[in-house]
């Protein structure tokens, strides 16, 4: 389906909705503009027709978009329709598994570390209150980062200003508003020991990876587990997966080839990576809604673990020449590394290129 055909298809859906009494619009648009999705969008094309129709129809734009979405999903040639932001329709065209996989990889690489960011919460300014304790403050900072990724502008409060070491070493914001505590304050199980000896990255992971109601493992010999560079350490697995992807991109460049999304539908290792990458936007939305960075941390571990079996197959072996499959695997690996880097950033943790 070409963009012109898609424009006509969307306009037909609008006209049918008006003819059947679902939309009361006196003057219909002469044409519907479809274009590649902007930041926060997804799929192949996006249109703002629901926003244009909202006022004359006397309905909220998201309601108009959902009405049109239902109609478009019944149309041949359209695989999926997602409503984002204030009412944009994001349309994925039908195609085989290879086409959908390639689209996902392109969407991620186009968005970069902002893949999964939206403006769904634009205009909202949630008031976050943290108990005056290091874990609560780190958790509040990460929640605020994820809320911003969804378009919100959160305000952070605490009954006492954060300690200098928490700001300097752990990256806790220094501009938190000092205000009395509330019953709705973020109150995770407190850290049992000072996390600053772990350094910023390991300390934040140790505080954020467990669910808020679980006790973080910090202090004494337990610190060694967070600093160990071995597979039993989930933070190491996530950062190592990202660093390996960056190394593969460097090595591929030395061999004279670059990533290019392409057919991988029947590649079992590739398929294992697709689902967690597809889930990433939903994980960010759930993390913001539930104020639960542990959801994002566990998701990043799932991405890294799914990626690990793919990585040895990315580069040609021996005298083998780079093929389309190698380029496609490299593109998929780069997309996964992009998701890992973006997710770690929202947790306030660095994603090094070398490890």
UniProtKB/TrEMBL annotation:
E.C. number(s) listed in UniProt: 6.1.1.19
Reactions performed catalytically: tRNA(Arg) + L-arginine + ATP = L-arginyl-tRNA(Arg) + AMP + diphosphate
Domain DALR anticodon binding residues, every copy: 238-355
Superkingdom of source: Bacteria
Main EC class the enzyme belongs to: ligase
Arginyl tRNA synthetase N-terminal domain location: 4-93
Keywords: ATP-binding, Ligase, Nucleotide-binding
InterPro entries in alphabetical order: Arg-tRNA-ligase, Arg-tRNA-synth_N, Arg-tRNA-synth_N_sf, DALR_anticod-bd, tRNAsynth_Ia_anticodon-bd
The protein, known as: arginine--tRNA ligase
UniProt organism field: Streptomyces lusitanus
